[in-house]
Amino acid sequence: xxxxxxxxxxxxxxxxxxxxxxxxxxxxxxxxxxxxxxxxxxxxxxxxxxxxxxxxxxxxxxxxxxxxxxxxxxxxxxxxxxxxxxxxxxxxxxxxxxxxxxxxxxxxxxxxxxxxxxxxxxxxxxxxxxxxxxxxxxxxxxxxxxxxxxxxxxxxxxxxxxxxxxxxxxxxxxxxxxxxxxxxxxxxxxxx
Length: 192
Prior knowledge:
Layout: H1 11-22, E1 25-29, E2 31-33, E3 41-43, H2 44-57, E4 62-68, H3 73-85, E5 90-98, H4 100-106, E6 113-123, H5 134-157, H6 164-170, E7 175-178, H7 179-185, E8 190-191
Parallel strand pairs: 1-4, 2-3, 4-5, 5-6, 6-8
Antiparallel strand pairs: 6-7
Helix pairs in contact: 2-3, 3-4
């Protein structure tokens, strides 16, 4: 499994990674992207592969530690889809969960979505870079709208206590929450 890590991790890190996997712990750090294009980005492909392999080994819960500013919407939804498809429960534990990392946090096993006492959670509307002629800009605007709807629907499906319209109002600008506020909002269940 570790050969897929490429140059992102050194041999010195292989032992802690192996220990974490034996303890059924995965970490999401940095920007969330499908295949990393920068060293400060996390390979969601690798995390999804590890989740699937751990789920094949046992039905014991997998703990997913999240400390991320977020990342690409559709790459992150790939991870969320894997979490939802596994028969093995995935417990999410967040430290700093912003943007799509907050949505991933909310996708954990109900009752087992945790935050640390001083965690921060932030939601906002998806952003994108538009370019091209007016037809391309219109297409890109429609795709951003689809991403926005998917984020709000996922949050509501995962137990956010506000309805669709209220979530849209809340995330119109950066919506920061403490651990207790995120629990009251329904993104997480309790503080560790």
